[in-house]
């Protein structure tokens, strides 16, 4: 896949995926189109050699895999489907001064200032009773701008530019509409109407609950005099989901490779990374282990396969911001458009070791593609990823890597227009690599 085609596909995928539920739905459609078979965890699986399969959990996490040569282990790529955002509270209605507002809860470590004065919409999953009194769930996406958090004028807040903190309880309720003097409105009734429009012919008797996110309706776009950059919401980490999916499909569709000799390949896209991964569908849950147990039911064989496997945890990295270059170690400041970033931390906040790093470096050099390395300043705290969680849960050797970006956890983030495609090419090669063995002298 060429660079511009790849980037256009990335931007389209992100625009279609305002929530983890929508991201998983989009990926599932791509996998079905590529000949993958959807599995159900509640059923017995009959897996065939050279088969292509995927399974979802909670509608917000997905694992896709191929059944290859088990003697070569499994080539795994991991990412996460969630992004920091504002979520609608269960009883959200706030009515003040004639305005109908929704109370929101901050999900993850969001940068809050950029959420003000944006054209916001609402999307997510709604669970309801149908006309027969049965439970059902469906995805909704209002798509058009229906909400806003207006800033307070500088004249009424002279300290606004002096580092004032945001009170999430008081200052983040979004304005949805204005009400007449005796007018009343229920958010669940609004959702009921939206469900009926989304699913014509489905009678919604009662909305019971929902998981809904606010999001910015501005679509992804190129930026820069020469289209050097891409601006978008949710680059952390739908970017890595798209890279992982695209590289998997590219690798298995390579006609130059004999499919029966290919290693098993796996894409793991987990929810709830931004809040610690501690859920049934998060990386700290059992989803990946359960799939591996079904793919390799014999414990002895499974242990052997995992010992020959490798996981690449793909999650974006901090590029050097030109206005804040001192926030980086001088020798480990990743530059935008200079290649993916190998992430290293002595305290295991990243799972990279010298061998997994060397494997990635070797694959990149074979393709004549650039890469960089990142170590956080020694006087700053380091974030983490699903890499160490996965490595410790199943005992697989792991590499942490990511595309460098600016404005991580903002409502709108920025990457270079070359780096994602570079990582895509290396991961496609990784999925096909038959020998990851390193001789110990």
Biggest sheet, spatial arrangement of strands: 1-2-3-13-4-14-18-16-17
Regarding quaternary structure, how should these chains be classified? single chain
| Mean pLDDT, all residues | 95
Annotated CATH topology of the largest domain? Aminopeptidase
What's the total helix number?
10
- The figure for the number of domains is 2
* Structural class by sheet pairing and helices: alpha/beta
* Series of H and E elements: HHEEEEEEEEHEHEEEHEHHEEEHEHEEEH
Q: How helical, in percent, are the residues?
A: 25-40%
Runs in which pLDDT lies below 50 for 5 or more consecutive residues are: none
**How many β-strands, per DSSP?**
20
CATH architecture of the largest domain: 3-Layer(aba) Sandwich
Q: So, the CATH homologous superfamily of the largest domain?
A: Zn peptidases
Supply Rg. 23 Å
CATH class of the largest domain, anyone? Alpha Beta
Query: Roughly what fraction of the amino acids lie in strands?
Result: 25-35%
Task: Please state the overall shape, judged from the principal axes of the Cα atoms.
Answer: globular
Keywords: Aminopeptidase, Hydrolase, Metal-binding, Metalloprotease, Protease, Zinc
Family: Belongs to the peptidase M18 family.
GO molecular function, one term: metallopeptidase activity
Protein name: M18 family aminopeptidase
Give a brief outline of the structure.
By secondary structure, the chain is an alpha/beta fold.
How does this structure look, described?
- The protein is of the alpha/beta class and 441 residues long.
- The protein folds into two domains: 3-83 and 233-432, Aminopeptidase (3-Layer(aba) Sandwich); 85-216, Aminopeptidase i, Domain 2 (Roll).
- The chain is built from ten helices and 20 strands.
- It has helices spanning 3-15, 20-33, 168-171, 187-198, 235-252, 287-295, 299-307, 354-366, 386-394, 419-432; strands at residues 37-39, 52-57, 61-66, 69-80, 85-96, 99-107, 120-130, 135-141, 174-178, 204-216, 221-223, 229-232, 263-270, 310-314, 317-318, 341-343, 372-374, 397-402, 404-406, 413-416.
- The strands form three sheets. It has a nine-stranded mixed beta sheet, sandwiched between helices. The chain has a six-stranded antiparallel beta sheet with strand order 8-7-10-5-6-9. Strands 11-12-20-19-15 form a five-stranded mixed beta sheet, with no helix packed on it.
- Strand 2 and strand 3 (61-66) form a beta hairpin.
- Helix 5 crosses helix 10.
- It starts with a helix and ends in a 9-residue tail after the last helix.
- The model has no long low-confidence stretch (mean pLDDT 95).
- One of its GO terms (biological process) is proteolysis.
- It is an enzyme of class 3 (hydrolase).
- Keywords: Aminopeptidase, Hydrolase, Metal-binding, Metalloprotease, Protease, Zinc.
- Its cofactor is Zn(2+).
- Its EC number is 3.4.11.-.
